[in-house]
Records
---
Amino acid sequence: MTIIITVDIGGTQMRAAAFQRGSIEPVDMRRTPTMGEGSAFERLCVLVQSIWPEHRSVEKIVVALPGPLNPETGVIYSAPNIPGWDNFPIGTELEKRFGVPVRIGNDANLAALGEWRFGAGQGHHHLLYLTISTGIGGGVISDGRLLLGAQGLAGEVGHITVLPDGPMCGCGQRGHLEALASGPAIVRYVEEQIAAGTPSLLKELGKITARDVSEAAGQGDELSIHALSRAGAFIGDALASLVHLFNPTAVIFGGGVSFSGDFLLKHVKESLNKNLMDQSYLRDLTIAQAALGDNAGLMGALALGLLPDN
Amino acid sequence: MTIIITVDIGGTQMRAAAFQRGSIEPVDMRRTPTMGEGSAFERLCVLVQSIWPEHRSVEKIVVALPGPLNPETGVIYSAPNIPGWDNFPIGTELEKRFGVPVRIGNDANLAALGEWRFGAGQGHHHLLYLTISTGIGGGVISDGRLLLGAQGLAGEVGHITVLPDGPMCGCGQRGHLEALASGPAIVRYVEEQIAAGTPSLLKELGKITARDVSEAAGQGDELSIHALSRAGAFIGDALASLVHLFNPTAVIFGGGVSFSGDFLLKHVKESLNKNLMDQSYLRDLTIAQAALGDNAGLMGALALGLLPDN
């Protein structure tokens, strides 16, 4: 059996897995050191070389990348934290180096594909995936197909406007979901409220993280509980719009923030219900946590690799 | 050549056209009187009977319907203004009556399909269609396929939340695009402003329509100009979210309100630009007026009829 090599490129680390066609258990997994020598592309090549099987042929390489890209042309438009990867034809460069076909995909899009094929979304033909962590990303499966859009830029669920003229988003515009409900947005809100005099268990902490907020909520901290419910309500507002647009049967939440459990999700659901034009949208709608965890990118890349090439 | 009969069911009238496969010029067109005798279904049957060709065989009937429906099962969930059409299996009933296959579609979805196949969206594989009139509806073509969602309820572009806790929408929820930028929403805003003392040419008019607002804007009426620019800005806010989700190459505007021209569209574009996370989305993006006018429903039904049955 031939091998599919998948790579997940994160902000600080790259991970690779080798899969035998027909199995979802990797035959090998490798990772780069968190701080490597050389350019990002060289480190990627060393990683792929290290996992290249000795006695098996490699069918293709599939790479999950952070940032907007064009899956048709194999060009990544920009990668946060990776110098030199603006409009970088990573697909062609890897093909030149390794002599096998290369496919690339946005990591959140691929995580959607992974959850659909192997995770919490199995059996659903219409699925939304949202990952809520440092940013908010996602992917949409409609009628069994990943929506990519004309240039591969579709599915940017974090950049729906939920509060016109609201806080500044990482993308430079205002009021997007990511600016209101991502981990950093939740932390910023908590810090603002503490600065304004709201009491909180987190007051004496130096640098607050989204995980701190989640833990403080678990200890009954009212500000933290409120901050998570507020973020959940914004996510629910956006989710109602998404449900009106895509009429899915599954909504899957990934990313660290979504593990705040009902401090967040209960308010997501309340706000979804409050905004829906018709309760029919809730018929057969499952809302679930992602199942693949840190492996979502690698498994999503495998799912892409298993799709027939056009 | 066989005949495809298409029907467009509006609030006050039903229209039918008979097309020969291979031609987009109807061989016959008929309409019901605006106020007919008998039940809506009986009037529909009389209309179809009246256009049934004498010496040709009918291949299928395709019906464009106002309201949410399931194109798979042929059931319309509810039709505003048509008593008795809640959860009505119109597809099956018509098949029983006429003995040929029947397909049904939401009229705004079908208008999207019609503009894509025959109108302003030809050649685009990723297209958004928005119709702005009494309500706001639309349809999405992604990678050459109409998005329907699990129950046929996708593409409800008028029910994106653009102003949380904003004015009440016709659907019973708050702050949806339709509640802020449809014809009645524009009129309501103008009436509120006049009641609050804002001067306007429209002040002496009894009942104001969206067309009056558009005409008054053309005559320099500042309140009307402002009301249209305000609606345009909300449409642009929503459009930015849609563009982030679907990454289309064409956005087509239909419906009477969109004929307010730049009083509206200029502000749509400004607000779109203001909200976009990346200017890449504007590359190759065409924004255009719909081309099919009143025939959008009939032509969209033809487009659906010409699609291969699954």
---
Amino acid sequence: MTMQHVHVSYSSLGENEQHGIQHTCEKNTQEKIIISNERPWKPWQSARSQIRGFVRRVQTAMLSLAGLEWYCYAALGVLTALMSFCMDLTIAKLLRAHQWLYGCLEGNILLQFLCWTLYPSCLCALSTCFSHSICPQSAGSGLPEIRIILSGVQLPDYLSLSNLFAKLIGLISTLSAGSTVFLGKVGPFVHLSNMVGAYLYRLYASACGEKQRRTQGEMLVVASAVGVASCFGAPVSGVLFSIEVMGSHYSVRDYCPCFFAAVCGSLTYRLLSVCSREQETVQAVFKTRFPSELPYQPPEILIFAFLGLLCGAISCVYLYSHRWILRFVRTNKFISRFMATEKTLYSATVAFLLASVTFPHTGGSFIASRLSMKQLLSSLLDSTQWNLISHNATVAQESPHSFWQEWSPPGYSVYHTLGCFILIKLWLLVLACTLPLPAGYFMPVFIYGAALGRLLGEGLAYLFPDGISSGKKLSVINPGGYALVGAAAFAGAVTHTLSPALCALELTGQSTHVVPILTATLISNALARSRHQPSFYDGISLIKRLPHLPSLIRACPKLSSVQIRQFAVPVGAVLQRAEGVMGVQHILNSSKENEFPVVDTHDSLTLLGTVTRAQLQTFLLSNQSEDLCKSLEDECSIQPVKLQLSTDATVKQAHCIMSVLREQCVFVTEKGKLCGVITWKEIKNMIEELAKEI
Amino acid sequence: MTMQHVHVSYSSLGENEQHGIQHTCEKNTQEKIIISNERPWKPWQSARSQIRGFVRRVQTAMLSLAGLEWYCYAALGVLTALMSFCMDLTIAKLLRAHQWLYGCLEGNILLQFLCWTLYPSCLCALSTCFSHSICPQSAGSGLPEIRIILSGVQLPDYLSLSNLFAKLIGLISTLSAGSTVFLGKVGPFVHLSNMVGAYLYRLYASACGEKQRRTQGEMLVVASAVGVASCFGAPVSGVLFSIEVMGSHYSVRDYCPCFFAAVCGSLTYRLLSVCSREQETVQAVFKTRFPSELPYQPPEILIFAFLGLLCGAISCVYLYSHRWILRFVRTNKFISRFMATEKTLYSATVAFLLASVTFPHTGGSFIASRLSMKQLLSSLLDSTQWNLISHNATVAQESPHSFWQEWSPPGYSVYHTLGCFILIKLWLLVLACTLPLPAGYFMPVFIYGAALGRLLGEGLAYLFPDGISSGKKLSVINPGGYALVGAAAFAGAVTHTLSPALCALELTGQSTHVVPILTATLISNALARSRHQPSFYDGISLIKRLPHLPSLIRACPKLSSVQIRQFAVPVGAVLQRAEGVMGVQHILNSSKENEFPVVDTHDSLTLLGTVTRAQLQTFLLSNQSEDLCKSLEDECSIQPVKLQLSTDATVKQAHCIMSVLREQCVFVTEKGKLCGVITWKEIKNMIEELAKEI
């Protein structure tokens, strides 16, 4: 019997330029039925053709409802949320296993010490070994590289499936090491969602063929929003993050897809936690119970502003130490040689060191080291005053969380532990940043900021035990509110972004503190950005000499006026208007380009337009037999060039034009003469040259 | 004695390209002290010079802290919030006066009817008369025009101070007419804040001179964010609005200024209401008391999605009716002639008609017409079930608001009143949209959506009196939550934006319903945007034939491929490389341009660059006396042109490049030959030509 190969390709409607979920696609389905007798007989021929017909009808119906890209966005959200949820489950199980083992060894301090230190060391070693043997690009946060890819420059291997696999397993191992290593999830997760997005884009492109209406860049912007949204179940901060991560211009066309995919992601993430009986309904991840009637008195806004200033100042210290240690690790001969050959051993050693310091029977009891990352954050956001609980047994029993006891070991007050936490964790975190494994740095910074705010809040509660009054009513100080404001302000200052403010609101599910959070985040950002200080990710970009133009310009503003003239832009193969068969043959043989510029004459070099390789081949074929040689101009239609840059344009302008207009290639002329051509490869080279100048 | 004129000009530091609140300005203050003896003696010479010195020191200190533009942003926020607050106060007083008068006339229905109808009629007539006699451009919402100005095209008189004055007084009169006329504040207020922004920008530009680092466009983007933020005290939705209002690309550089100014505005607005004893602390404008423990059951998300679908469908009906009536008013001979000559009478008649329908003793009691706009919204967002209150006297007494009684007149249930409200108000609102006075259309749409949601919520509460259960706990239906979701979804669908979702969250100060609100808004947007239907503002743009490219392309996607070739781009005065004194003299006399293109020869027309009028004048002066005439090339340095477009580029591309790169003028070449020049004037003409084609 015959076998039918059914190729169905859908033409997506015209130039449907604006975003909008429901596009009514034209249904001009082109069906090419190729009948071949090569394949052998297959069973259930009629059933299979029925199913095929049904699938085709469903496909048509779905595509008439919305364009294929919208299904991709939804799939991206759902897949990423699933990945995030499964990751959380696995990590929770591994953390519980460690706690169980540690509890079993109660009584024997040596064994407990070994359990406490070796477990995270092994996990970090595993993470490093795994990620480096499968894909070395999977180490680190991945956000600096994502920013580069979003600006249009391509980095090989950063969006491959092997990287996805390595990063996923590596990240699970890292996070299972718990609060000892004190690392987070967001950055690598955004990288992961970008890899999923790139993979979905490849599927989308192959399904659409040439009729695709979206570029990979658009899919990756959406994936960045989804990454943050699925990580915390926070759609709005995901969208704001996707705006901030773009270098210079955000295309408003991506706004709706970002929101759509982010809502799909966060809804799936939260519904999964409802299904797994973690939560009763769809609600915030770190739900707080701040009093909503009178959350704070108006004069407290000044204290919140001071907290912003404090967080900004400490963020500068942290950023400076971070850059220093990264440079030290790269320049110190011993460590850099050790890192080059024995990455796994280095990770294990550093993790062992970190775990030894945080061992509960020694220094760990002063920094609440028995709490996991999630427990640390939810304990810090608790609205009851710890100072009050520790002196009042009845309040202590009523308090829903028992985590506060970890912050108040026998004989020490909460001020001691919070102070120790702030002093010690900063250096531990700076050390942890040198680990060559997949890890995020947002959550630790967020928790650190929460501790800063908490200390200020507890201090105020001590100073004003009866609360602050500014009118009729008196309200008790809520240290949890200060912790939340501190977290947002410190995370915002370190990353030089404002989306942590929204993130703090969405994580807690309460918007009582929206004004203080935004005020403090703006102030801390102002301080952190003063004097062209690079942000956390800018610092990594600069030290690794990654080709990220905005961070280069931020570090050295005079680079924004560097002209493209400074870089030798090579002139490729050029055809002239009256080129004959011989010339065309020569150029086709000597060059591998797909498009060639056509000039008036080789002397004047006035750019007329471009011809494609296919056009030239047709030209050769048609003129091969004939003696009468026609010129290029007579036979090929020269495609005009829409845009020309002069050699006086700056690198920044060229980069901006190419990324905004999504051009792949721009011609450079000087006084009408063709000088060269710029593609993304040249842009990348230029930025790398600029990076060397700093 | 002598008088000292002290001119202080500050040079703002280098090319500080990136946003950041604290820029450390260089302090190289240039002081030119011009001593003249013309002016007479003035008293307190030493005291005055001391004060002047002090002011200068303060100025230097402030500018070393942050650039001047940041003070402008803060001033913009504070001024707009002050304006918003004063406006609210005046409107509240005028509304109370009307209520008092109406109450005094209790017992005499005829007098009450006259009071009820004539008060809004007079106010609407006043508003129309005032706005049209001072500045006819102040009528309407102003948002469609603001979108055009933000895209780069200039509209004369739309940002003038006389417009500000006319719009402010007109808007106060309109809003004082109350819920009878059912119009809002947001749109015109954004227009007002843009006018304040434009004025502040003129001050900024005159203070900075040529060293300014910001353009007017940037200030207007910030002003749009501030407008929404100061209107509701909602900073985040202000920023999202400023992103959505941009046509194609949002510059990430404006993101921080937008947030900063929006927070300044909303903080001032909320602090003012604290100072005026309206609120105890800084909190939301329409604060709700939804249960936070279990706000809704997971299956209810499906009902919320259905609500989104419903809102989307009804928004299509509303948008269609709105376009129809606008077109009818323009095309109907009688009405258009009446409108052209007797605008004031038309406004008074329509307002009288609207007030007659809503008179409480006739139909008004079925649509809760005694409630003001604010009372309508806060009553609809009430979390208690009205159905329950009306049957239970004790619950009724506990209920904080007594507004629900207006929704349940004797003998009728809340379903009757809500149904009547939804049926009648739609047509009244469509009619009110034809009024030629300053008015916003967001708030009425928001309230209408809330009524839709409330009806669904009350219906569900009737169907499930014991609440919905999906596990252990049972939760009672919260109709207020449905009202909030409906409001966001309907307002989002009508305006084709997503910022109403954030606005709903910030207005109520609770984020329990964030996921349902976003889901419903996305769904309603999807339905409203299907089949290239224009949004509310797009509809106005299209009917008024305003030069707004994105809405033209949305209405007719094939316009995006129209090339600039189709429009005759005129070639202005052109100089050639070897131009002599005579030619230059001729061109200077015949043309008024400030910049002239220089070509190789008049035959080849190869563009070399540009020279300025000043350069040409210097050239003429230096060659006047000499016999030996030098050519242009020898004496003037020809400034190269960075960017050239070909005639094959589309209007959309040209518009995008000019607005993204903030270019004022781009040269057009074809095959190396100069064809013409495009400035914003030509772009505007092109878009107006395109608008005629629809």
